[in-house]
Specification:
Elements lengths: L2 E5 L4 H13 L4 E6 L19 E5 L5 H10 L4 E4 L6 H6 L1 H25 L9 E7 L24 H20 L3 E6 L1 E3 L8 H11 L15 E3 H14 L5 E4 L7 H10 L6 H8 L1
Parallel strand pairs: 1-2, 1-4, 2-3, 4-5, 5-6, 6-9, 7-8
The structure holds nicotinamide-adenine-dinucleotide.
Amino acid sequence: MQNILVTGGAGFIGSNFIHYLLKEEPDVKVVVLDALTYAGSLENLKNLPDPDRYIFVEGDIRDREMVDGLMRQHSIDTVAHFAAESHVDRSILGPELFLQTNVMGTFTLLEAARKFWLVENTFPMDQVRFHHVSTDEVFGSLNPEDPAFSETTPYSPNSPYSASKAGSDHIVRAYAHTYNLPVTITNCSNNYGPRHFPEKLFPLVILNALAGKDLPVYGDGQQIRDWLFVEDHCEAIWSVIKHGTPGETYNVGGNNQPTNLSIVQTICDLPMNFTQTNILRDAA
Ligand SMILES: NC(=O)c1ccc[n+]([C@@H]2O[C@H](COP(=O)([O-])OP(=O)(O)OC[C@H]3O[C@@H](n4cnc5c(N)ncnc54)[C@H](O)[C@@H]3O)[C@@H](O)[C@H]2O)c1
């Protein structure tokens, strides 16, 4: 795998993935495709380990002609697909964009990959991979006594966001079965870490605490989700791309399910042995 198209690479997880890849893999070249919506920022792609192996293209994953052109121009053999509308609350306010981006955008990328790799027969099939980055929210929510989600948990999405991600998972899976497109899917739990958008729980708590503002705890704060450090997620994705079986789905999680309240308390209890500048930089 040499020439990797990373969609959504200016967002939270996509940008961490690019930092990880350029640091860990000396031979890969990365083409980033990102529409730079409110969630994407070129700030996230500053100070890359080896910037000469990276190209940024501003564009929409739904633009088929442009995606076709990128695949051909850069001889793309791997797609790592992160681009999405990803914020649950925003999906409740405006679901249409979520369906457009997450379902139709994924479909457009799949069609471009199918044409370039299968119809035009550009590479041996064991040298290409379409990796779809998805979420464990497609499985619904967990009660404290429930077992963790597994790859066989039935889909039960509860928001327009998770329903649109579930739809994209199904269409990716269908391309494996129908066309033998070499795809893999990862369904991961909540991530935290550097370059997290400030409206999300961890950075919001940190920034509000530093500014002496109220901390965002909904209800009694007893809601539970699994949390994973973003670099561990990136490592898992790259491992699945390199070693995963085409057609398979892999769940990724931290086996770490604190309540929201305990997350807030843990952050407040952190020793202040690092500077405020560092916290702000890492939270942003
Ligand atoms: N954040 C999490 O905790 C988490 C957990 C599991 C899975 N995921 C999945 O990982 C992926 C990345 O999540 P994130 O938190 O980094 O999201 P994010 O919102 O931070 O980033 C999404 C990126 O996609 C770009 N984008 C949006 N629409 C686009 C379009 N039409 N064309 C091109 N680019 C577009 C945005 O500009 C942004 O840079 C998503 O698919 C999400 O469903 C996220």
